[in-house]
Amino acid sequence: MIIVLSTYPDKSSAQKAAADLVERRLAACVSIIPIECSVYRWKGKIEKRSERLLLIKTGKSAYSAVERRIKETHPHRVPEIVYVTVDRGNRDYLGWVETSTRLFRLPLDLRETMRDSAPSREHKRARKPRTLSR
């Protein structure tokens, strides 16, 4: 399991990003933490802003997809995206995170794999070819 950290400029964009990540199964859970003030340098100037920190709980195998999705939807040109690895924790919780963020699932019912263009079940009865001898 990993926890991806990403900051957002306001409550609305943070909530939208959190819901999007969970709906897409890229995160099992996203916690939104208000930050009273972040101080950073941007384009040579010292900036001070309130932000929202997203704690994105996900599986390590989902990281690339999480990073890609944040970059696609984030309001900042250079969003903060870092992760920390969780080495230990409640096994049940860690298992839930991994199961909740599996990107590739096999269908339980094989009928789901049938294509619309699958051959019809109504086959014509095959006829024995005629031979020259009777």
Question: Can you tell me about this structure?
Answer:
This protein is of the alpha+beta class and 134 residues long. It has one domain (2-105): 2-Layer Sandwich (Alpha-Beta Plaits). Helices cover 25% and strands 29% of the residues. The chain has a 4-stranded antiparallel β-sheet. The protein is elongated, with a radius of gyration of 25 Å. It starts with a strand and ends in a 34-residue tail after the last helix.
Topology:
Blueprint: E1 2-8, H1 11-23, E2 29-42, E3 45-58, H2 63-73, E4 82-85, H3 91-100
Q: β content, as a range? A: 25-35%
Structural class: alpha+beta
Distance between the termini: 74 Å
Please compute the radius of gyration using only Cα atoms: 25 Å
Strand arrangement across the biggest beta sheet: 2-3-1-4
Shape: elongated
* Average predicted confidence as pLDDT: 86
Outline the biggest β-sheet: 4 strands, antiparallel
Return the CATH class: Alpha Beta
Q: What level of helicity do the residues show? A: 25-40%
Architecture, CATH level 2?
2-Layer Sandwich
Number of strands: 4
List keywords for this structure.
single chain, 134 residues, alpha+beta, Alpha-Beta Plaits, four-stranded antiparallel sheet, 3 helices, 4 strands, 25% helix
